[in-house]
Amino acid sequence: MLKPLFALLAAGFVAASAHAQIEPFPPGFRSQQIATNGTTLHVRVGGRGPAVVLLHGYGETGDMWAPMAADLAADHTVIVPDLRGMGLSAHPAGGYDKKTQGHDIAGVLDALKIDRVDLVTHDIGNMVGYAFAAQYRPRVARFVLIDAPLPGVGPWEEILKNPLLWHFRFGGPDMERLVAGRERIYLDRFWNEFSATPARFSEAARAHYAAIYALPGNMHGGFMQFAAFDQDAIDNKAFLAEGKLAMPVLAVGGEKSFGKAMAEVMRFAASDVYTGVVLDSGHWIMEENPKATIAMVRAFLAK
Q1: What contacts 218, CB < 8 A, 6 or more positions away?
Q2: Where in the chain does DSSP place strands (E)?
Q3: Which end of the chain is more exposed for a tag (fewer CB within 10 A), N or C?
C-alpha cells in the first residue's frame, strides 16, 4: 500500500505546484520510493558511472541538487534522496537521529545494488552524511560537506550560543500549530537571514519549497530533525572515539556564512581535510552561486 500512496502524493504535489517552476532534474532521471530501515524514501536516480549521493538540508529537499545532478550525471550515477520525514519521503514516528538516518542511506544503496559512493551534503544533510560515513567507512570514497556544523563536533557548544540559531530549539506541538498555514512566512526567515543576497533565492524556489513543507507531516519532520540534535551529539562523540574519517574530505563554506570555519570544524572529525569557500554566497550555495559550487565539487570528485 505504501508505494501507491506515495505515488498519489507525488502526483498531487506536482499538479498543485506546477506554477512554481524550478530547475527540473534531467529527463533521464527516474524517481522511486525505496523501502529502507523501517521507512520509505523518495529517491531520484540518473546518469552512469561512479556513484555519488547528494543529501539536502532543512528549508529545501533533494530538488535543490537538480543543477549539480545534471552536471554530474554526465559521468556519475547520481542518487538524490529526500531525507526521512521530509520532501516526498515517508513520515515515521521516530528515527530522526542522524545515526538512524545513516542506516536509511545505506539501505537505499543496498536496494540500488551500489556498494561505494562519493558523498556531497548540505546543512542537515551534512549530519546524516557524517553518520553514514562514520558507520560505513569503507563505502565512502570522498566526502564533501557544505556549510553546516556537526552536533557534538569541535566548537559545537559555542555554535549553539549564536542567537541566529534559535530554531535549533524551536519545535513541539504548540510551535507546529503556530507555523501551520504560515509555512512560507517561517521559511522566508531562513532564506532571507542566511543568504548573502536573499533575492537569489528565487520566488519560484520559495513557492516550490513552501508548498512541499505545507504537505501533511513535513513541518513536523523538519522539527524532528532539530529535536534529535542532543542525541546526535552523543552519537557523534562515540563515532569520534572510533577514530577520524580517513577518506578525503572537502569542507565548503559560503563566503558570507561558515567560510573557512567549515574546514576547522571538520578537522576534529577527519584526517584529510581540504578547505573550500564559495565566494559571493551565504548558506544557500546552490541558489546563490551554483556554478562555483558545482565546479568546486566536480574538481574535488575528480581527484
Answers
A1: 85, 86, 87, 91, 212
A2: 30-36, 39-47, 51-55, 77-81, 117-122, 140-146, 249-254, 273-278
A3: N
Q: Which three cell numbers stand for residue 134?
A: 562514520
Total of domains in the chain: 1
Q: Coil, strand or helix: which one is 153? A: coil
203-240 burial: b if 16+ Cβ within 10 Å, else e: eebbbbbbbbbbbeebbbbbbbbbbbbebbbebbeebb
Residues 156-206: tens digit of each pLDDT? 778 777 777 767 777 788 889 999 999 999 999 999 999 999 999 999 999
160 grid coordinates? 549553539
Give the SS3 label for residue 115: coil
Q: What is the pLDDT of residues 251-299, one digit of tens each?
A: 999 999 999 999 999 999 999 999 999 999 999 999 999 999 999 999 9
All residues at 6 or more sequence positions from 292 whose CB lies less than 8 Å from its CB, including other chains: 278, 279, 280, 281
Helix or strand or coil: residue 168?
helix
Report the Cα–Cα distance between both ends of the chain, in Å, rounded. 44
Q: How far apart are CA 162 and CA 200, in angstroms?
A: 24
Report the b/e string of 131-149 with b at 16+ CB within 10 A: bbbbbbeebbebbbbbbbb
Task: Name the 3-class secondary structure at 42.
Answer: strand
Spatial CB neighbours of 58, under 8 Å, sequence gap ≥ 6:
86, 123, 124, 190, 222, 225, 226
Q: What angle do CA 226, 126, 40 make, to 5 degrees?
A: 70
CATH number at residue 156: 3.40.50.1820
Alpha-carbon gap, residue 92 to 86, rounded angstroms: 10
User: How far are the Cα atoms of 25, 116, 209, 210 from residue 111, in angstroms, in the given order?
Assistant: 21, 13, 28, 30
C-alpha cell at 8: 498519489
